[in-house]
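Quarterly update from the structural biology core.
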Amino acid sequence: MRDAILGYLERVGNASFAAMERDIPGFKGEYRLCLDDDETLVLWPRLTRDASDAIITLQRDRLIWIEPVEDWVALGFEFVPFDFAPDLPASTPDRKVSWLPVIVHFGPKP
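Predicted structure, tokenized:
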């Protein structure tokens, strides 16, 4: 999965998780990727554990970087249909779960 994600990003340069879900076989799954283990800030809620581990490893190795963006940018970045908007776990009065939309970039952060 690491090579599939890296190869995809090398070809397209930048991508949303929605686009990767659509274009990379085996990316979509039941796992949730959160920001720095904070389960209330969800980067993407529908990927495999292998895809999540690959994203984390590629970012740690500075082969990709992740940039927060407005939600309309993340979904419209590559003209992704809005039905790709993530379904999040339910919030509770003491725990608000939020989607943090991002774009994933190929290469080290400038």
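The radius of gyration is 13 Å.
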